[in-house]
Amino acid sequence: MFCRATIALTLTLLSLLSLxxxxxxxxxxxxxxxxxxxxxxPITPIKDCNSQDKKVLLQIKKDLNNPYLLAxxxxxxxxxxxxxxxxxxxxxxxxxxxxxxxxxxxxxxxHIPPSVGDLPYLQSLSFHRLPYLTGPIPxxxxxxxxxxxxxxxxxxxxxxxxxxxxQLKNLILLxxxxxxxxxxxxxxxxxxxxxxxxxxxxxxLTGPIPxxxxSFKKPGPDIILSRNQLSGTIPTSLGQIDPDTIDLSRNKxxxxxxxxxxxxxxxxxxxxxxxxxxFDFSKVQIPIKSLIWLDINHNNIYGKLPVELAKVELxxxxxxxxxLCGQIPQGGTKRLQxxxxxxxxxxxxxxxxxxxxKCK
Length: 360
Ligand SMILES: *[C@@H]1O[C@H](CO)[C@@H](O)[C@H](O)[C@H]1NC(C)=O
Ligand SMILES: *[C@@H]1O[C@H](CO)[C@@H](O)[C@H](O)[C@H]1NC(C)=O
Ligand SMILES: *[C@@H]1O[C@H](CO)[C@@H](O)[C@H](O)[C@H]1NC(C)=O
Fold this sequence. Notes:
- This protein is of the alpha/beta class.
- It contains 4 helices and 22 strands.
- α4 links the parallel β21 and β22.
- The radius of gyration is 27 Å and the shape is elongated.
- The structure holds 2-acetamido-2-deoxy-beta-D-glucopyranose (3 copies).
């Protein structure tokens, strides 16, 4: 089977080749005899990328101190075949650069090369798991007007989340997880009209969540800001957007988070655990149609659990370590009391009913 398929594929390629301007193979081979001299694996010729892009890639390699990781970036070879890059098949421009280290290579050191800004057709730029990549996010990145995906994840990159990122109007995903970024979240990020996911989690960001985040184009991107040192109250404007996921966990946020809820919202995941939030949970409107993940553990949230919680299909639920009181909603179509054990409820003021002890 495999052999027949390979021959069929080879024949298809040969007939395609016969149409090429080189004109060789003007009569496609008829016999299996002539096939036996052909290589088994069909080889697609590797093209050279745009010469300006090639120059820039070599500059990037130099800026990163000629790491072994980029050994295949040899000026004598066609750059569309180089490791960690992708060429556009028609224009031969570089459209993707994804630098990721692996333990078999020496650890890549240096800064994000400013020269990346000179790859004007780049749609995806990624620096991933590079513990020795240091320094700030260079301003030249603002030149990448075609950029759709920017990932700088698990590196030692530091400095601010630069406001110039708001100039990248085509950005769909902006993931800056697990770096050493500090300072405030720039409010200008809400001006990214195509953004569907904003991840700034696991950094050292301080200050409030920008008021402007309520003006993200609706429904608004997933917003993941966990594991920072964000403070202040959650802006009421956030009630205007309706993202799939909002994760503000492990910060120092205070006050009311009820704007994140709403019976008509389509939010699936709300995680506000491990903050200093304090508000009446009886008043929140559970997004009945969509909610699957609710974690509010370790806050100062008071009041009763809304009965609607027994009507939603929750996969993750945790209200422990708060100041909640009253009966855990029983029955309902989804039987909340059967799906989560006592550890989802422990350390509250006076919660009662299954799986905790009976209400008095
Ligand atoms: C890279 O760094 C890691 C962590 O510091 C270390 O364990 C590893 O040996 C280093 N690898 C090389 C090839 O230097
Ligand atoms: C990363 O940066 C932090 C803070 O600047 C520093 O403490 C840490 O040692 C750095 N890690 C590496 C692998 O350079
Ligand atoms: C809820 O959170 C607490 C505190 O972090 C943890 O101890 C407990 O295991 C969690 N329970 C569930 C069901 O996730």
